[in-house]
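Working notes for the structural subgroup meeting. M.R. asked for a predicted model of this chain before we commit to crystallization trials. I am recording the input and output together here so anyone reviewing the notebook later can reproduce the run.

Input as submitted:
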Amino acid sequence: MGEIKFLADVNVEKPIVDYLSKQGYDIKWVPDYDCEMFDEDLLKMANEEQRILVTNDKGFGDLIIMQKRLNAGAILFRIKGQASQEKVKLMRKLLMGYREKLLNHYIIISKSKIRVIPLGGQR
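Returned structure, recorded in C-alpha cell form:
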C-alpha cells in the first residue's frame, strides 16, 4: 500500500490534525491554505494529491457516494458536541483497526461504531 496522506477540512479540530502529524502522516489542513475553499476545490485537491479527506461535514456524503466525486477516500466524524480529544481517540482506533481500509473507502465514525463503505468498484 502506498503512503497514506490526509486532507483535513476547515471544520476539523486542530488536535486531530496534530495527532495525525505526530503519527508521521502527511496531512494538509485547509485553514493553512484557504479557509474559503469551496467543497468542489477541496475534492479536486484531494483527488489530485491522492489524499483522504477528513471532515465533520456530512454534506460531503452525496458528493462522495452518489456523485462519486472523490476517489482516494474520506473519513467523516458524525459526532455532536464531543471533545476533540475523544475524536483523537476514535481516530487512533480507526488507524489501529482499519488502516488497510482507509484508501478508496468512505468511513463514517460515530461514538458507537465505525462504518466502512467501499468507493467505486475497488476493494
